[in-house]
Design goal:
Elements (H helix, E strand, L loop, with lengths): L1 H25 L5 H42 L1
Length: 74
């Protein structure tokens, strides 16, 4: 579980760096479209990662619930 939390922290830090770059680009009107595309890409990537994390957490929860039930049934 700690490994998953560390992965999430690293992803958040990477996204903060990309967002800072996007904000700097946004200050230049000529690069506004590039900025919008970059931000959209970041959001799509983040959504994909969050779905992966959700699936992993649901799997852990299901496994824990099954283990708890088995222990109670014993």
């Amino acid at each position: 579980m700690d490994n998953l939390a560390e992965k999430i922290r690293k992803e958040i830090e990477a996204k903060k760096d990309l967002i800072a770059q996007a904000e700097a680009m946004h200050a230049d009107p000529e690069k506004q479209k590039q900025t919008e595309e970059l931000v959209l890409g970041i959001l799509k990537e983040q959504l994909s990662k969050m779905k992966e994390y959700q699936q992993a957490l649901e799997s852990v929860l299901t496994s824990s619930e099954e283990q708890t039930k088995e222990e109670q049934d014993s």
